[in-house]
């Protein structure tokens, strides 16, 4: 009789409430954009060869693969005076801010270890901390929003991600061109415009996370129970080992989304790691090993602007993407977006004028806007509510694994097959993005709400 009790509808939230619960994503992506746009540049400054960059970037997906399922598992089971997801937002933000401050100053700690080792360590700490803060944000949408608002909720996150990424990506250029900070430095040292940007990123990250923590109320367990039908009790492995059980029982939709994610994130990893050396070599004609010239600095700063452009496009696109999904379907909207991203990546090879790269970023922005929202909207309809956090964390496996594969083999491919010409890694990324678009259309078993 108890199991037949009517399930209450979750209250719809106002746009302001959805904004407040997602505001922290602005700061997270501000820091993430600084990492994406400048980590390769910083590591090259500390002595990394271009073919070794992907190995250093392995720190990011490896930590994400370990951290996100664990954080998802514990956040599902957490409830205290600070809430369910909010404690993880705050802890992750504090740790990320510390890493943002330390990473560009790795050279100052050279008396302990080589700067390249310290820089790679800070990259690992930064990404692990970002994952601690980021994963519960995805689960919070499933916790708080009714099904009819979830596409909009994930799109609001994407909008704020894009807005934060624009700011983070453009800040080094703004510091050097408008605020007088030096964009060049002696060999082995990070320019002031990059250092100051990382400091600003730490402050903004902490502020926006605190905004979400202080303005968002989470439903306590007894209230959450009113909004979900009683799920049958099953004998489950207790503790963290239950993550393995949940992994083995993942829904069909999640497995099929895994292939889409593999193609998409393999491409994104190549783009983040190799865009700066690819554009420096292919368009600015910077010689291999040159990391202290004005041309290399100009290429690095312009990549920051370009990354801001694609994130800006994704932010705008996120606002119209739910309407496209309603008019067609989530699958069709995502397939179209990935196809546009593949075309944008491939076009970089044919461009000689740096200004024209902005057009390539439009297609990449459409793909990024969809990657950050549509897979989660599709997935959230196919997983049990009581395991929203752990399955969102497990889903991160399909984001980290392609990056690990790319990290292990990407640099070797650039060295052995592309003879150090990073532009061909970008071409391969475009091909993989198109394969992702094709694989979306074969997803089955989702509600695919219109």
From TrEMBL:
Cited SUPFAM superfamilies: MFS general substrate transporter
The UniProt record lists the keyword Transmembrane helix: yes
Pfam families recorded: MFS_1
A single GO molecular function term of this UniProt record: transmembrane transporter activity
Topology in the lipid bilayer: Multi-pass membrane protein
TM regions (residue ranges): 18-35, 55-75, 87-106, 112-133, 154-175, 195-214, 257-279, 299-320, 332-351, 357-378, 390-410, 422-443
Stored InterPro entries: MFS, MFS_dom, MFS_trans_sf
GO annotations of cellular component type: membrane
Every Major facilitator superfamily (MFS) profile domain range: 253-450
Location relative to the cell: Membrane
Domain of life: Bacteria
Keyword annotations: Membrane, Transmembrane, Transmembrane helix, Transport
PANTHER family assigned: SOLUTE CARRIER FAMILY 45 MEMBER 3 ISOFORM X1, SUGAR TRANSPORTER
Protein name: Major facilitator transporter
Organism: Pedobacter lusitanus
Source species taxonomy: Bacteria, Pseudomonadati, Bacteroidota, Sphingobacteriia, Sphingobacteriales
């Amino acid at each position: 009789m108890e199991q037949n009790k009517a399930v209450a509808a979750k209250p719809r939230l106002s746009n302001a409430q959805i904004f407040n619960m997602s505001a922290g994503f602005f700061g997270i992506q501000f820091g993430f954009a600084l990492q994406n746009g400048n980590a390769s540049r910083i590591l090259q400054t500390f002595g990394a060869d271009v073919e070794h960059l992907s190995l250093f970037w392995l720190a990011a997906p490896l930590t994400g693969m370990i951290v996100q399922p664990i954080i998802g598992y514990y956040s599902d089971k957490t409830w205290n005076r600070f809430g369910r997801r909010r404690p993880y937002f705050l802890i992750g933000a504090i740790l990320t801010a510390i890493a943002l401050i330390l990473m560009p100053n790795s050279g100052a700690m050279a008396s302990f270890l080589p700067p390249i080792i310290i820089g790679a360590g800070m990259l690992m700490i930064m990404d692990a901390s970002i994952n601690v803060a980021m994963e519960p944000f995805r689960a919070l949408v499933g916790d708080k929003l009714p099904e009819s608002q979830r596409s909009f909720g994930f799109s609001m996150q994407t909008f704020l991600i894009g807005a934060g990424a624009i700011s983070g990506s453009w800040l080094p250029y703004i510091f050097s061109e408008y605020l007088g900070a030096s964009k060049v430095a002696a060999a082995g040292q990070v320019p002031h415009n990059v250092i100051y940007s990382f400091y600003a990123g730490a402050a903004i990250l902490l502020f926006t996370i605190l905004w979400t923590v202080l303005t968002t109320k989470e439903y306590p367990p007894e209230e959450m129970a009113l909004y979900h039908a009683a799920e049958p009790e099953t004998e489950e492995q207790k503790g963290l080992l239950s993550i393995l059980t949940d992994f083995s029982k993942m829904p069909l939709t999640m497995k099929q989304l895994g292939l889409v994610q593999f193609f998409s994130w393999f491409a994104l990893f190549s783009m983040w790691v190799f865009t700066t050396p690819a554009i420096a070599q292919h368009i600015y004609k910077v010689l291999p090993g040159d990391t202290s010239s004005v041309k290399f600095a100009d290429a690095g700063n312009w990549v920051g602007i370009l990354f801001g452009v694609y994130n800006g496009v994704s932010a705008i696109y996120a606002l119209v993407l739910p309407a496209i999904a309603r008019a067609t379907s989530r699958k069709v909207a995502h397939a179209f977006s990935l196809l546009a991203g593949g075309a944008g990546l491939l076009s970089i090879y044919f461009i000689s004028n740096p200004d024209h790269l902005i057009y390539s970023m439009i297609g990449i922005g459409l793909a990024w806007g969809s990657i950050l929202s549509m897979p989660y909207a599709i997935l959230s309809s196919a997983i049990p509510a009581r395991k929203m956090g752990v399955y969102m964390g497990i889903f991160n496996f399909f984001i980290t694994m392609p990056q690990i594969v790319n990290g292990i083999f990407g640099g070797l491919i650039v060295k052995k097959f592309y003879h150090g010409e990073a532009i061909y890694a970008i071409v391969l990324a475009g091909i993989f993005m198109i394969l992702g678009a094709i694989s979306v259309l074969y997803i089955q078993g989702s509600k695919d709400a219109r």
